[in-house]
Amino acid sequence: MAAGCSNSKDKAPAPIPYLDPALPVDQRVSDLLGRMTLAEKVGQMTQADRAAVTRDPSMIASVGLGAVLSTPALVPTDDTPADWANLVDGLQSRALTTRLRIPLLYGTDSVHGDNNLIGATVFPHNIAMGATRDPELVREAARVTATETRATGPQWVFAPCLCVSRDLRWGRTYESFGEDPKLVIQMETILEGLQGDGAEDLADPTRVLATAKHFAGDGDTTHGTSTTLAYKVDQGVTVTDRAHFDQVDLAPYVTAVGKYHVGSIMPSYSSVDWTEDGVGNPVRMSANKELLTDILKKKLGFDGFLISDLMAIQQLPGDYAAQVRASVNAGIDMFMEPGNAPRFARTLLDEVRAGRVPVARVDDAVSRILKAKFELGLFEHPFTNRGNIGTVGSPEHRALARRAVAESQVLLKNDGATLPLRSSQRLYVAGVNANDLGNQAGGWTATWQGTTGDTIPGTTILRGIQQHAANVTYSADASAPTGGHDVGVVVIGETPYAEGLGDVGNGHTLNLSDADRANIDTVCGAISICVVLDVAGRPQIVTDELAKTDAFVMSWLPGSEGAGVADTLFGDRPYTGRLPVTWPRAESQEPINIGDRNYDPLFPYDYGLTTARR
């Protein structure tokens, strides 16, 4: 053989196309799809929860699971960053033993920071971020959330909520940026913070796949239409005409898809009942082919994948086979069936083999899921990049959260320039919410419903006040003597809740608690200058109490960094926040929204007083 020549047998084999990162994603998807059996395809459409795969780890390979999720109750035993990464990597190693070595997606609820991880930076909830009117801040906060989440394993978050909240009685009000679709759209920079600027950024260790939810109309349902448990608003029916739906409920998704190319979307539990054809025939979103396929995928051009909400398809009519068939044919691509994954896969297989679900529909679903996995770089780097694990809850991240808290504060009353306070003033602070991290963080913090008490590391509002003033008396129930104080600060508000369990009429009300009213009466009646801070996920009815105060501030649910509340209270930062929702005079005014006829709220949408730095 001539010098310099080589035998063809010595050439390295050509890489398998789907494993070749040099090829375009669509070619890799097509190649891999062509190698898959029907059972492997159905497996990719199936998501189980961590509890199920912990009980039966062989399920990952036997079903060929496409994804695993952690609900807030399903966290590692020690709930540390390293434990999270070890958990995800352990499951991933099992996925890589399958014939085609298709990696898992791992999803978690990072709705205001990586809130399932104890020690993560917990930001104010979305309603407070809407009050900032600061899209760049929202983008930065989302980047921190993505960084802390990805560094600890999960590559996919079930956030953000792009609902337009039209009724404060809804228990998910605080998950919305506000009642005006234009404001929600303005704050969709959150998607860029999570995902980056285009699919090419998704593999970055500071990015995650985002989920826009809940498509569509979940913030616009009619009170009393829910049929889930004792819920009143959540998972109810959006009774609407198509013009209103397009303008209010659909509009944020047009931007999410067209401008930000969101990677996944979660259909709502709720239903839509078009008024054009007569009220009384609502269709649940999980089976709404018109909206999921014809509008979202075809008209809007959504090329990501649809993930069902937790067991949402089981609310559809008929037996389980009918539920699976209806939801797949409507356009859902992946199914969150936490303890039911093997049954789902078997049922879908039977439906396809019987010809009731087209193979083409399955291929479309799996192609969308694989596209996300390739774009996330999971085939090249399936295990957790832990390079940023040291940033979880870091001083820099907490400083950003503190700034977000300060920018979110909405000053609603300030007679006689009461605020900002002076550090030299003698302060009397009352109210449980002044010194309760769990209450100030709200729901979706460590647990689904949230928990009162010191559940997460952070700084309470009281501690923030004490950092600014040396002479502070604290009495949760205002039972300590009030004499000798210059200013009373009463911290009122809600205790944690989430979803329909927080609906007004389901054990909740917009009215203040008896304890909060008593604290206002005691402190504001005894001390000449009285400030009230409301720590809640939505406006409360304060019409009668407002006159008793010199200054009133809506502090929302600030998360882990309560010192941000004190930063504006003492003038380190100015008050600049504006209401993202209308503040009613009475609970009976709900629903009340900007643009309504006979609009007469206590405080209108977009209201907020300003101050200068001290």
TrEMBL record:
UniProt protein name: beta-glucosidase
Gene3D superfamilies assigned to the protein according to its UniProt record, in alphabetical order: Glycoside hydrolase family 3 C-terminal domain, Glycoside hydrolase, family 3, N-terminal domain
One Pfam family it belongs to: Glyco_hydro_3
Family classification: Belongs to the glycosyl hydrolase 3 family.
Residues of the signal peptide: none
Catalytic activity: Hydrolysis of terminal, non-reducing beta-D-glucosyl residues with release of beta-D-glucose
Organism name: Pseudofrankia asymbiotica
Biological-process GO terms, alphabetical: glucan catabolic process
Organism superkingdom: Bacteria
Keywords on record: Glycosidase, Hydrolase, Signal
UniProt GO MF annotations: beta-glucosidase activity
PROSITE patterns in alphabetical order: GLYCOSYL_HYDROL_F3
Enzyme class, broadest EC rank: hydrolase
SUPFAM superfamilies in the cross-refs: (Trans)glycosidases (SSF51445), Beta-D-glucan exohydrolase, C-terminal domain (SSF52279)
Residue span(s) of domain Glycoside hydrolase family 3 C-terminal: 410-610
Domain called Glycoside hydrolase family 3 N-terminal: residue spans: 37-371
EC number(s) from the headed UniProt entry: 3.2.1.21
